[in-house]
Write a structure and sequence with these properties.
By secondary structure, the chain is mainly alpha-helical. It has 10 helices and 2 strands; from the N terminus they run H-H-H-E-E-H-H-H-H-H-H-H. A two-stranded antiparallel ribbon has the order 1-2. This is Membrane protein.
Length: 252
């Protein structure tokens, strides 16, 4: 996994859990960045999925007998855009040992832009109503899980380590199923994905809270942590949203 999960702080075992204006400001900065990232992703997904000159650069489509144009595959550019976030995250683990605030922010917005562009598939595969409904469900679940991670006194570190291993398993299973195209396996992957990223949302929120106390008011370090924390939560949200769409989304 990339540094954005476990490399931007060494959190203490305990922290002052009292209400703290600085902590609220720090967390608000993270959530604002996540919200803006989701808006940017939605705009890019609409552009790549709906605007023909851009869509045709990214995706292969065809008009089916029922008259609906649907996704049939990726172009070379589309495949590069779809897989580059994972490559960049893995690469950043080696190349960004001590990132500056601008480098951490640049990484965040680069990942947001690439994921948003690749999510034109959502526009091409699912109905608008199911996309909106699933987004609202994901947002409600994300908010509740993040609140739990923020308020719980239980240490989630052990659970988080287990869930991160689960992400690796998900990636492997998903790659295998690209070739197998097994419907039952895809359903199991989707259910597991929802549960894993739901747990990671609570874990990452608690870890961000510990990060704030560990940094001791260092503004430069907190700026870096804000970007990495937003990246963690953004990826959790996007994955929950996509897995829920696979389970319940209405296809075009």
């Amino acid at each position: 996994m990339s540094d954005f999960r476990n490399g931007y702080t060494t959190a203490p075992a305990t922290a002052d859990m009292s209400v703290d204006a600085g902590l609220r400001g720090f967390m608000l900065g993270v959530y604002n960045k996540v919200a803006l990232g989701l808006l940017v992703s939605a705009a890019l997904a609409w552009l790549t999925g709906s605007y023909p000159p851009v869509r045709d650069l990214m995706f292969a489509t065809a008009v089916f007998p029922d008259g609906v144009e649907r996704l049939t595959g990726f172009t070379l550019l589309g495949m590069i855009v779809a897989f580059s976030p994972l490559v960049i995250l893995l690469g950043s683990n080696f190349l960004m040992k001590n990132p500056s605030p601008s480098a951490a922010g640049g990484l965040y917005w680069l990942i947001v832009a690439l994921i948003g562009a690749s999510m034109g598939t959502v526009v091409l595969v699912y109905t608008g109503a199911s996309v909106i409904q699933t987004f609202l469900i994901t947002a409600a679940a994300f908010g509740a899980l993040s609140l739990f991670g923020y308020t719980t006194k239980k240490d989630l570190t052990g659970i988080g380590s287990f869930l991160i291993m689960g992400v690796i398993g998900l990636i492997i299973a998903s790659v295998v199923n690209i070739f197998l195209q097994n419907t039952m396996m895809q359903m199991i992957i989707s259910i597991a994905g929802v549960l894993i990223f739901a747990g990671l949302t609570a874990y990452d929120t608690q870890r961000l809270k510990m990060t704030y106390y560990a940094l001791g008011g260092n503004q430069t370090a907190m700026s870096v942590a804000t970007s990495y924390g937003a990246l963690s939560l953004y990826i959790n949200f996007i994955n929950m949203f996509q897995f829920l769409l696979m389970l319940f989304g209405g296809r075009r």
